[in-house]
Amino acid sequence: QEQYTKGLEKTRKSFGEKLNELFANFRTVDEDFFEEVEESLIAADVGFETSMKIAEELRDEVKLQNAKNKSVVKNVIIEKMVNLYEAEGTNENNKIALDENGLTVILFVGVNGVGKTTSIGKLANQYRESGKKVLLAAADTFRAGAINQLAVWGERAGVEVVRGVEGGDPAAVVFDAMERAKAENVDILLVDTAGRLQNKVNLMNELDKIKRIIQKSLPHAPQEVLLVLDATTGQNAMVQAKEFKATTDVTGLVLTKLDGTAKGGIVLAIRNELHLPVKFVGLGEGIADLKPFDSEEFVVGLFG
Ligand code: GDP
After folding, report:
1. What ipTM describes this predicted complex?
2. Which residues bind GTP (predicted)?
């Protein structure tokens, strides 16, 4: 909880404080009050549609409970926000489907600069610390420097990296990585992929090819395809999520740089509009600054 509270400082300052202020000046729950709640939500990038939905449910619930007390109303807001998230399933969905008795392959997709490499490094470190044998595959052979960057993270996290050559065939890297993962009884293979190829069709073909190589070697893999999004880009992250969802079978999201934005509400908007679970959130640049997403901790963190 502490890390959430700290990582969400900016969002809390703009959104949480505004709500807290609203509560401090609280006299009565009237239409103005609901509208101000709605505005605070929209300002935090919860999204128009999602904000309206939360405010609407709040209106109904306040009426139903005949709530006049501000702490009750505040709890209803928190509950509505958590519920909105969990309506799509339980928090279980937020967890990675790790194969306990074999290899789990996690494919990372997303455009350049969103924090893909950093997130892979952080996650590799966590899994290694929890006693898993981890291997990384540097299959982003497209972006200059991507292979080296992943190698640096591999060293930092204390895990091996299978690397090809810049401009080489990513599928060949993935093939090698799968062979090695099986030969060395690796528990978790994290695969970095290129973010932007010449065009969408190209990207789709490339990801398909990588998936086919993985499946040839292990039919039920990859168990997860995680789309990495930069929370500071707000609604732009939403556009990327839509595009990638149409391009490949995304199973979940990693939302980075929540510490650098006042627009952390994007988590709720993406969940409500795209029905994709957020699996991890990035709350800083350090190796320990990646947390499994927990909707309750997240929402409570917004209120500080
Ligand atoms: P990639 O191109 O998607 O692989 O992006 P990188 O992993 O290279 O990350 C781009 C920049 O974002 C780097 O400077 C990272 O340190 C930074 N970054 C990644 N995740 C986070 C995060 O959760 N919080 C903050 N503040 N910075 C992050």
Report:
1. 0.99
2. 110-117, 192-196, 256-259
Q: What is the pLDDT of residues 159-204, one digit of tens each?
A: 999 998 888 899 999 999 999 999 999 999 999 998 775 677 888 8
> With the CA atoms of 82, 227, 292 and 238 taken in that order, what torsion angle do they form, in degrees rounded to the nearest 10?
-30
Atom of ligand 1 nearest to the CA of 112: 2
How do residues 101-160 score in pLDDT, each as one tens digit? 899 999 999 999 999 999 999 999 999 999 999 999 999 988 888 899 999 999 999 999
- State the Cα–Cα distance between residues 262 and 119, nearest whole angstrom: 21
pLDDT reported for residue 90:
54
CB neighbours of residue 246 within 10 Å: 10
Asked if residue 275 lies in contact with residue 252, where contact means CB atoms within 8 angstroms, the answer is no
Are 170 and 194 in contact by the 8 Å Cβ rule? The answer is yes
Q: Is 118 a known ligand-binding residue? A: no
- In this predicted structure, the answer to whether residue 287 has a pLDDT above a threshold of 80 is yes
Pocket, ligand 1, Cβ cutoff 6 A: 110, 112-118, 149, 256-257, 259-260, 282-285, 289
The verdict on pTM exceeding 0.95 is no
Alpha-carbon Rg of the chain, whole angstroms?
21
Is 114 annotated as a binding-site member?
yes
Count of CB atoms within 10 A of residue 111's CB?
20
For residue 256, say whether it is annotated as part of any ligand binding site: yes
Distance CA 83, CA 154 (A): 38
Evaluate whether 290 touches 119 at the Cβ level (below 8 Å).
yes
Residues in the chain: 304
